[in-house]
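EI: anyone free to look at a 249-residue chain?
SC: sure, send it
EI:
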Amino acid sequence: MEPLAVFDVDGTLFRRGLLPALTRRLVNEEVFPERVREELSEDYYAWVERRGSYEIYDELVVQLFLRELEGASVAELRRCAKVEVEAHGRRLHLYTRDLAQRLKQVGYYLIAISGSPTDILETFLNPLGFDRAWGTVLDQEEGRYTGQLLHHPFSDKRGVLKGFLDEAGLNLDGSVGVGDTLSDVGFLELVQTPIVFNPNRRLFDVARQTRLAHSGGEERCDLQPANATKGFPPRRGHRVGGVMFNVQG
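SC: here you go
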């Protein structure tokens, strides 16, 4: 039975967000109107300048994308997704890219759970050797998008993982999970070796609280994760209680 490795994508593997990148590409290709670029920039700089959280920015991007999506051609959007991945798909975090490659080499089954649309998610993940992925499924009729969501795994990553385990008859022995925001807590709590990579402050705080609850307050900085992840220490940050931390500024 293959051990399982579970990855978040946006900010964990890909250095940016797939949905904002796709949205900008759709503007460049004149699928979305130019005003979208300005709105996207306003939301982005509000986050960068600490006038809003990443979660607020992320939600605003989703709302903006869905607002413009209705009536857009499925074929055209997927063409734009391919162009974007070809142009920027190698903008990866080296740690997580190399970790995924190492896990694949030693026989892990790689899955990704993301809030990004499947239309770009699968194109992005295919060269990285992932076996299966769950992303946001966009409703479509007669070759055009309706602007509605059929499935949004971002809101329940724990449920997605548990459902897959039941479906495939797998367990979490030797499992590894990697995430960077609070939405990843659901699956990080389930896997045997959770890796909190470059977390935002909210995930960092939750991870530390969880570690204290389980270890009785003893802080250990020398624990190594499962065998498959040995040799992959973070370039910056520290490891506490078997969870890797690398905190954003």
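EI: The chain has nine helices and eight strands.
SC: 👍
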